[in-house]
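In this section we walk through a basic example: taking a raw amino acid sequence and producing a predicted 3D structure, encoded as discrete structure tokens. The instruction is simple. Fold the sequence below.
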Amino acid sequence: MTTELVVDVKNQVKNALNEVKKRNVENVFFVACGGSSALMYPSKYVFDREAKKIDAHLYSSNEFIHRNHAKLGGQSLVILCSHSGNTPETVEAAKFAKAKGALTVSLTHEVESPLAKASEIVLKYEWGQEANGFTTNYSVLYQLVFGVLKVVEDNDKFEKMERSLENLQAVYEKAASQYHEKAVNFGQQYKDEKIIYTMASGANYGIAYSYAICILMEMQWIHSHAIHAGEYFHGPFEIIDEETPFIILLGLDETRPLEERALAFSKRYGKKLVVLDAKDFEYSGIEEDVKGYIAPLVLNYVLRKYADNLAENRNHPLSKRRYMWKVDY
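The resulting token sequence is shown next.
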């Protein structure tokens, strides 16, 4: 791990928390689009489980503006994200929140981007094959979120999470190695599928959502839909049969029973089931109190390897687009 980058991330988060201390934060809004929005689902789950005073909300950037939440104001912390910092809806959402008196904190890979310039505080994260888990987007957001909980509510998990995240890369690499053969087989076996569903619940739902809309639909042009495991038996389970592929995630948080129930039914009637179980991973250096929160990050990392293999076998690079960044929309 590059010590300089780790120190830089910690200092960025520390500076953000110093600004939070100056405010009487009563609510938090997570605002982004697409994969950046999915990034925030685990953190919203953290607030639902840990916060005693702070309300937390999650909105797609454009709806955040048009909905104009009645509680958005001077006691609000608005956390935004855009990898490029160029997402127009998110840039406008930052301006909108700031005009309402909210404190705006934005995560991005580009510190000179329009989003960075529209926000009061900017947290830069690293990205790519060489990036260490501690300095990437999920980790930086968790450091901010648990820091806010500590500052505002004296929550005791900030240090535990920070220490755990310092060991995240090793957990990532071991999990990816453990699932390597399965990821290779996935690419080979599912390269010709026209539709692949994803399913999860709780802190893991955002991972299923991003895989459906970003990896399968956006990057591979494969029809998909993210199904919440708790909603599976209220309509979607009618679609399961021996020919319909499902990616089913099992996490370590309190909603795991929902995922287990959905998997058990799917095994009765389906055959094309791709199951990633967070219980299979080794969490060396991850503290027990935060394992349920860390699991989605590991699932996401491993699933990316599945995406790489799928793209390779389909001869369809993950960077390929028809419309995004190419036409007006």
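Looking at the output, two observations stand out. The first strand starts at residue 27 and ends at 32. The radius of gyration is 19 Å. In the next section we compare this with other chains.
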